[in-house]
Design a protein that fits this description.
This protein is α+β, with helices and mostly antiparallel strands. It is built from 13 helices and twelve strands.
Amino acid sequence: MPETNIRKIIHIDMDAFYASVEQRDNPALRGKPVAVGGSRERGVVAAASYEARKFGVRSAMSSMVAARKCPNLIFVKPRFESYKVASKQIREVFAEYTHLIEPLSLDEAYLDVTENLKGMASATAIAKEIKEKIKERTQLTASAGVSYNKFLAKLASDYQKPDGLFVIKPNQGEKFVEDLEVYRFHGIGKVTADKMNKMNIFTGLDLRQYDESFLTKHFGKAGKYYYNIARAIDYRPVNTERIRKSVGSENTFWRDLETNVELEAGLKPIIEDVWKYCERTQVYGRTVHLKVKFKDFQIITRSRTTLSPIVDSTFFEKIAYDLLEQLYPIPKGVRLLGISLSNLALGDDMVGKQLSLEF
């Protein structure tokens, strides 16, 4: 990227956000291994405190596995309203510095501060101030990554967690990437990293040895992205109108559901949860997905796509129940049900729709 077009991107990632809110609000949990979500017998960990992570406890891990790894693990129920309140406070801090904010979740966002509301020359100084204000207003810590593109800023925010601030300057990007193992690259998951390892691609430097056509041949459309990030290239702007790819909700039940009546009763609040999000955000989807996890942990999914976005709650509910009824009679107990919507669009879209600065 030409010197005159260098962006100033900050990636803010709250540290163990859900668990940190719980520890902040309940002094008895501070300094102890905490898992948000699930229970010792059932469910999935939504978030883990750093004390729990030392034992290998991670989000999306089975609660039973987490309890085995950390016998003293304390399970707490999620309090999403509290997390949303804290997230709102954090975004208010962001808005004091820039209008170019791309939220990724309640606890994570990109900020473009190339031209900022404070007129500050240094993105690093902005990131430091943002971290300090978040700590002052929420008593929570954040990690920040500063760089000239989104890919590097996200890598940087994870580099010195927790409560970190790491900067990758324009003349450092390629060197930083070439020394990094590919499994640490944002956008390269475990399956892809394993495939790369089998091809003797272990680091960014290894990945850089291959041209775009080779990578596209072996990794499809993602090949172009891999070609660019191996060279620390990422032209994506901070997108203030970013729409989620999907929205969903699921529930792990305290006991296995056995009958059709139990299944339909269990699915209803999940349907309502998804629809409340759609109404609140005015984001609607065309594809309804049903997820079923049986008591033996077998997972099956069913989906249906409509010609236009589903804007009627009754129609959405009917499709969800139709997908469930396709599975009758249920062959074994069900421990989890989930509903999600994809092919999303904003309601308004349904009828159609720099200078180099000091780091």
